[in-house]
Amino acid sequence: MDSAENDMSDTLQELPLGVLSPQVTQGSFHEPIAREDTQQSEQLDKSSLGLENVAAQKPSFQPRQTSGKYNLNDFHILRTLGTGSFGRVHLVRSNHNGRFYAMKVLKKKTIVKLKQVEHTNDERRMLSVVAHPFIIRMWGTFQDHQQVFMIMDYIEGGELFSLLRKSQRFPNPVAKFYAAEVCLALEYLHSLDIIYRDLKPENVLLDKNGHVKITDFGFAKFVPDVTFTLCGTPDYIAPEVVSTKPYNKSVDWWSFGILIFEMLAGYTPFYDSNTMKTYENILNAELQFPPFFQADVQDLLSKLITRDLSKRLGNLQNGSDDVKNHPWFSEVVWEKLLCRNIETPYEPPVQAGQGDTSQYDRYPEEEITYGRDGEDTHRELFSEF
Ligand SMILES: Nc1ncnc2c1ncn2[C@@H]1O[C@H](COP(=O)(O)OP(=O)(O)OP(=O)(O)O)[C@@H](O)[C@H]1O
Predict the structure, then answer these.
(1) Does the interface predicted TM-score (ipTM) exceed 0.95?
(2) What is the pTM of this model?
(3) Packed helices 172-191 and 250-265: angle between N→C axes, nearest 10 degrees
(4) Is 72-155+352-365 a domain of CATH 3.30.200.20?
(5) Is 303 annotated as a binding residue?
(6) Superfamily of domain 158-339
């Protein structure tokens, strides 16, 4: 067994799962924001900089054929797995192959009201092109009069967020394992010129073996150059986004630093119950480490969570290699990790098999009205679904 494997397996003993009661050190979850004038400001800013064609450029990759394959009658809806600002995710079972899937449902009216049409279409587009071991796979999309639907793999192990809150904080090797898998996912997205823009523990799911699956591409976008939209989740947003400067992929490396910090500390570095104060902290506050942070991780975090873009790791000449080659990751055998060939620090207890929902919180169920006839004034806005 090589050093990386040793490192990870040690963590099984260290992780105090189920021993500590859930402890919420700050707001119970990180709520996303998307500025309401998103589309308008993006257009204004682009044209003023002569970048009008950036958004219109097509990715160099071909989307998989995902629309028109399914409709609501293909699935039996079982229960709610999660709710977000823009929609609800249900566990569903296919009437054809008996398999379980996650069905994300977004109400067209809400999308339009919150000015998320572009983001929703981008989410669909981005998910239809990505294929990576640590990223959720989408199988198809469709729409009815009032909703759009996305069918994805159901990931049984729950959110990294729940595990983190139960554990309070992760030991160094556990945080390192999850960070390393997330790092490979970000590296892959960036290689396709996709910025993810919403990295946080709620959007990192664990599969039944304990490997990472990144979900929620609601803010992901094809950006070969720079973009402007204020979106993300306050604690995790990079300073250049807060100050509405043009920004690029490096915002994901900032958030990656915040994720590592939160996994190790149990809280995010710039948190304040007042969101405006959080932004102020992101722009001005000094990054302070708890005393138990080791020197190598302090070094890595100070190079990721830096406001100076010319110094931020991931944004330099060697791109993601600088992150992967940092001493904190020295035990990680990246090729083995990518093949999921490294023992996970924690296997979610999903004894009931594929449709087990024990790792997800219960949400109040609403009456299902999907598929009903009604006025559909927005079909043309979602023509790709
Ligand atoms: N493929 C999946 N398998 C299992 N659970 C999932 C899956 N996708 C999403 N979920 C659950 O549903 C929750 C909400 O999903 P998602 O984040 O995509 O919705 P959202 O409306 O965009 O949320 P947000 O407000 O965070 O942007 C997730 O945090 C997770 O708990």
Answers:
(1) yes
(2) 0.87
(3) 170
(4) yes
(5) no
(6) Transferase(Phosphotransferase) domain 1 (1.10.510.10)
